[in-house]
Amino acid sequence: MTAPDSSRNSSPASSRSSLVAEYDALLLDLDGTVWAGHNPIPYAVEAINAAALPAMYVTNNASKGPEEVAGALRGIGLDVAAENVMTSAQAAVKLAEQYLQPGDPVYVVGAPSFKELVAGAGFRVVESADDKPIVVLHGHHPDNGWRTLAEAVLAINAGARYLASNLDSTLPTARGMALGNGSMVAAVTNATGVVPQAAGKPGPAMFEIAQQTLGSQRPLVVGDRLDTDIAGGVAAGMDTLHVLTGVSGPWALLNAPVSQRPTFIAENMTALSESAADLAPQPQGGFTASVNPASSGTTQRTVVLAGGDGDSTPIQALRTVLAAAWAEDTADGSGDPTPEFTVEAQSPSARKAVESWW
């Protein structure tokens, strides 16, 4: 596999061509980016189809197998094969292989499709801690409950290695944010004292495997969650587009650590056809932003947002604020903590924009 260029994340495209013209593939998150509970996010399907780039759907949701996910994506109008889906369950099986020999017993907390992946990799899926599993694999499934988790606890306390597909605390659904795999993992960790090694985002492995599978030299990662999608893309040295259609909103962006800062920010997936140069954090829309010094004894700083006009938009205000705030980051080896930012709006357009941030 060609190693991704780690400098790309800090050097966004400079031309005024469309964003997709700068890349040769899309690595797309699902929940909160393409759909919410299998209901398509507005504009997402149309934007992906119009982009006409090879795509891999990289999801931390381990409750369904690649073919089932691909079928659901075809159902909302996307041309997707199972080979274009990379789930955290698949990554978890890859991770487990380094600890197992063919035929070794594995206890799986998760969906039937997860168990099928484990069996297909040549391991023996067991249903009880009494079978002395060498590895416990933990992935999301709506039917995970006390009995399943209790067996996992017993196996881990008996010496089994604990691996998780992902550690997302929440999961976007059509009804709102629901319990994620990380919250269930927390219960097992609380009972065992063992924190699992996680295979999914924010680790870079899923993105690197996806890039290799597509034969891509310059992929763009697209996601809605800073601590998984964006952090994983940054860790893999890839450019990232953060869309405000899911978990992480403007205030999370403002205070994001360097490891979670996207290359581009947009309201939704229509940004794929917008100018790459306009999507990066920078002063725009007639807005200006400056940062007041921190008060003595505190890391909190205020970004003063002014200017704007009748045609200015909230996303332009956000990119302007982010450019000023992120330029003030002090996590540069000086030993100072990363600042905490608030925003003070000093013009009617600025106030209107900030009030619209959710």
Architecture overview:
- The protein has 358 residues and is α/β, with parallel strands linked by helices.
- The chain is 31% helix and 21% strand.
- The strands form five sheets. A six-stranded parallel beta sheet has the order 5-4-1-13-14-15, sandwiched between helices. The protein has a five-stranded parallel beta sheet with strand order 7-6-8-9-12, with helices on both faces. It has a three-stranded mixed beta sheet with strand order 16-17-18.
- Helix 8 links the parallel strand 13 (219-223) and strand 14 (239-243).
- The longest helix has 14 residues, at 314-327.
- The chain is globular.
- Residues 329-358 are annotated as: Disordered.
- One of its GO terms (cellular component) is cytoplasm.
- It comes from Corynebacterium aquatimens.
- This is HAD superfamily hydrolase (TIGR01450 family).
| Span between termini | 40 Å
- Strands, count: 18
**Helical percentage:** 25-40%
Strand order of the largest sheet: 5-4-1-13-14-15
List the quaternary state of the chains: single chain
**What form results from the Cα inertia axes?**
globular
> Poorly predicted ranges (pLDDT <50, ≥5 residues)?
1-11, 331-336
Task: Give the overall average pLDDT.
Answer: 91
User: From N to C, what is the helix and strand string?
Assistant: EEEHEHEHEHEEHEEEHEHEHEHEHEEHEH
